[in-house]
Request: fold
Amino acid sequence: MNVLLLSMPDSFEHMPTVGIRMPNGALTSLAGNVDPHHRIAVADLILVQRRVRETVERLLKELNPDMVGLSVMTFQRKTAKKIIDLVRSLRPGIRVTVGGYDPSMAVDAYTDNSAGVVDFIVRGEGEITFRELLRAHESTGDYEHIAGLSYRKGGQFYHNPDRTVNRLEGEEIGLPNRDARVLRGYTLLGRPVDVIETSRGCTFDCSFCSIIEMRGRNFYTYTFDRVLADIRDACAHGARAIFIVDDNITLNVRRFEALCRAIIEAGLNKIDYTVQAMTSAIANHGDTLAPLMRQAGFRYVFLGIENILENDLEFLRASSKNTEHQNGRRTGNATLKAIDHLHRNKMYIVGGLIVGNPDDTRDSVEVNLEFARRYVDWPYIQHPTPYPRTPMTKDFRDRGLIINENLDEYDGTTAVVRSKYLSANDMEFMRWRAERWMKTRHMPAALFHSPQMFAHTFRGSSFKSFLGFEDERLAFERYREIRKAERAYL
Reply:
């Protein structure tokens, strides 16, 4: 079969394509785990944000696929529907499959024609399910036995039982197939970038996160031989920077330290690595872990600070993963100590915070913004977003705090919920106004790699607003209109 796999063009505000164009690792993993006689093409549409229609039309013509698969996140659902409609208009008989977080968590949104005519939904981890789907489609057309699959038959959808989460043992899940990519231009601040994973899952139950609902509370790991092979393959395909996409690599600190040593011993530490980490793990083990990370080539650490106020951490269910321990006892918030370990070892901190929780006031939001000004190198501040089936969603809905049901604005930096004391618009304005100036500290390095970064960060602003001759709210509203227009990819 000829299969075309598409990731959506929609990007996060904090990952602008002028500086960051990251590949979708899930699709290359799918491509690497189907039977070898299939012809698989992977197209990350984030590389062609302003040429989506002509790119899809060209690929359909050149590749003549029998099936098109789409990887979709919640804020990309509207775009996915438009792409499905486009594909159907050009190839009425083609089979359409969707997968990823949104189809897995909101299956009902894809079982009627309002989400485009979908034939198959791959729920949860997709490698084995998709391989079995292609086998069944080629042979019997019998899909009833495929765990993790929903399928349309006779105008009705049937939902097979969930697939058991893969333990990542042995060779059941092979390496990604990066040769399947048909578009080029992945970059992270000017350096060719790729993604790898060393583990899957998390055992925490943060209220804002979809991982637990997606796969349960578990943590499974690949062997180091496989991880190193994946890094080498990424480098062979041109990568000079690597983002490790693990859900929570710092759950097992000793394993992470051993992985750093393995990277060093393999001579793969000339690469710039970016990783996500818990504050507690870095704070409690930083004396040994942080120097190893730097020696292994880690340069940027996305630190899950979440919030520096205990009440907010409790709402986010993130207190335990942000707690420092000494002699087996809790001694307070781990954030400052984690930051100190990373900075002393010359690593940059991308500070992940969430502001705008139900009980937030202007003062509590400002406390977190001031913390980010003082301690993080690049802010990644978001608003709580009620994604399908997360505990946060039920809480916000029960309190009547969700004010925006427009899912294409569920991108993390558009405030779609209010607090008891602040409007969504006020909270978003506070974050936007502060965050732009925080980024200027790292702007010289960003500008060196991407001259457009300054213009992107301050879009909506004018000379009058810079000089204080114009209400910043006017610049903010211009920014919102620009951001709205940017979401129109087709």
